[in-house]
Amino acid sequence: MCSSGRSSSPFSTLGLALGALITSALAQYAPAPTRLIWWALLAVFAAGILAVLAMAEPGSRRPGVLASLRPAVAVPRRARRTFAGAVPCLVATWALGGLYLSLGPSLAVQATGSPNLIWGGLVIFLVCGTGAVAAYVLRGISSRAAMLTGCLLLLAGAAVTFGAIETRASAAFLAGTTVAGAGFGLAFQGAYRMTTALATPAQRAGLVTAVFAVGYLAFSVPALIAGVATTKYGLHSTALVYSASLGVLVMAAAGILVFRPGGQPVPASRAVMPPGPCTSPPCPQATDAADANLSTTGK
């Protein structure tokens, strides 16, 4: 996805939620569970290609297609303190997504005692769906309030999930997942907006890239480590350690937010909606074009 960053992009996370639920239902109840899903995805992608070809190009062409693929990662000086303080929150939110997208279905089987594949899709639907809804419904609150509220919900959800995994209580596991999901969406939205508000239009693309570089590393590396740990120590112990680690990160993020004030936003910038946790960032060209348009129109 290549977005200007001004749209209500929690819908991207909602796509993850619906995709998980629909594919798990197809795998459980439809014929050819190992093939039908891929044919369905190919059909959706084909329709998407046709839709893109029919769309009008919003920007102007310019040379440098290969240079545009080179990532530009930069954190402006005035944003470094806030960015560093937001890192625990960014890591916690994306690592939570990594936990559920990697071990979530197995944890659902363990908690419910049912081999029905729909449970695995349901837990991903809950964490991503509630995250998307919370981020969209509360998009009007301040970035600081969003991040703090999200951290508190994440902490509560992680605590309930920890207890549910330990006791194998299915209802508590689903409840903890739902609460953590809401925190997942709000905390990332707040951290993203608080950080990017400190960049000028010319600096924003590099800063957004830095935010998502941290996010993708947090999404993949802990999940990989957890996969290896599961084979050695078992799913139950690994999930408990993972959940406890998320709780520590969230407490650190909330403490930094409460006891250390952030920088002042750049006056010319305005808060933007992030693409959503575990989705793609706005591409630099789209961001630059949106900022140039904003400067020209004065909106």
The helix/strand series, from N terminus to C terminus, equals HHHHHHHHHHH
Count of individual helical segments: 11
Count of spatially separate domains: 1
Shape: globular
Based on secondary structure, the structural category is mainly alpha
Per CATH, the class reads Mainly Alpha
Polypeptide structure, described:
With 299 residues, the chain is mostly helical. The chain has a single domain (10-22, 83-287), classed as Growth Hormone, Chain: A, CATH 1.20.1250.20. It contains 11 helices and no strands. The protein has helices spanning 10-29, 36-54, 65-68, 80-102, 104-112, 118-137, 143-167, 170-196, 201-233, 235-259, 284-297. The protein starts with 9 loop residues before the first helix and ends with a helix.
Layout of secondary structure:
Layout: H1 10-29, H2 36-54, H3 65-68, H4 80-102, H5 104-112, H6 118-137, H7 143-167, H8 170-196, H9 201-233, H10 235-259, H11 284-297
Helix pairs in contact: 1-6, 4-5, 4-8, 4-9, 4-10, 5-6, 6-8, 7-8, 7-10, 9-10, 9-11
